[in-house]
Each structure stands twice: as C-alpha cells, then as structure tokens.
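Interim report to the steering committee. The following record documents the input for SirA family protein (204 residues).
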Amino acid sequence: MSVLLNCEGEACPNPVLRCKALLDSQPVPSLQVIVDNDAARENVSRFLLSRGMRIEKTVHENSLWSIFAVSQDGAPALQPEPSARPGCDLATGGRTLVFLTTDAIGQGDATLGQRLMENFLRTLPELGDSLWRIVMVNGAVRLAASGHPALPLLQALEAAGVSILVCGTCLEFFGLMDKKSVGQVTNMLDVVTSQQMADKVITI
C-alpha cells in the first residue's frame, strides 16, 4: 500500500523528520512525499536513498515536487546500522568534524577574515585521516558557491575523501542553491547527527 506524506509549506528539516518517523514506525513498501522547495526535495530524496528506498521518479508541477519512492525488492526500509556509516578511520583517533558558521574568521576586517578562512581550509589536510566531515551553515555556505576563492580548496578536500555537507535552508536564504559547487545539500537532522557521531568538533 502506498503512503502519501504531504509536507507542503514545511521547511527543512521537518520533511526529513516526518519521513524518518514514518519509516521508523511501520514498513513502507511505497511512498509519495510532497514538498514545496528544492532543499527539501534534495534532502528527502537523499534520506530515502539512505534508508534503502529507490526513487522511481520526481515530478515538479505548480511549485510542488512529488517524490515517488519504493523499498528495494519489496522489503521495508530499514535504519542503517551506525557502524555502516562511511568516512571514518578509527585507527587514526576518531572522526573530526569541522563546523563552519561563517565565511570569514574573526571580527575586524572582512577581507582579512576571508583570507584567514582560506588559510584555515588550506591547512585542514594537516589533520590527516581524522578529518572526517565539514558542515557549513549560515554564511559559511557562500564558501561552497561557484566563484568563491575558497571553492577550489573545498573541492580538493572533497576529492581527498572528506565529506562536505551544505545547509539547504541557508543556500535558499542566500539565493545560492543553483550556485553550490561542492558537497551535498543537507538539513538540520544531518547536522545534529554529524555532531553526535563525531569524536571531536572544531567550530568556526
């Protein structure tokens, strides 16, 4: 039986939280989720994939996205085991999460702050294999936009295996959703979960 979840008018992370609550409470062989913003569409789709569902199609009509998903091979979607989550080498001392809330470091001169941020990103590889994930919220999402001087540094980190999550609500607020050029669009549930999973959090 197909389940309809209407999340019209709901900002992230609520659509993802509602999907999680539904999948945690019952087997769902077939699901249709309705959202009204691109950040929610991407976050819901990624979450459903992480829960073992397959996205059959996504329909965009009258400012609404309808996401149609089915469980793989007819089996109910299951919560992935925490040990199966990628991106960690426990032998190196655990996961280090870098939580960026701004595109500049410190107060005083904005240009200097932006240069310091670029130097910070350039130095992050010195953390070695413990560098697990970078999460960007608020003004930090500008770093992930095309044309930003720090973008090549983030792209190099991602190519080296560092997970990068970029707040979808923040991208929409700043009008940068179409300019995001690195990382995955994320929601507050992923942000909270990432901080919980990390062994160390560096906040800027």
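The CA atoms of residues 89 and 186 lie 23 Å apart. The committee is asked to note this result when reviewing the revised timeline.
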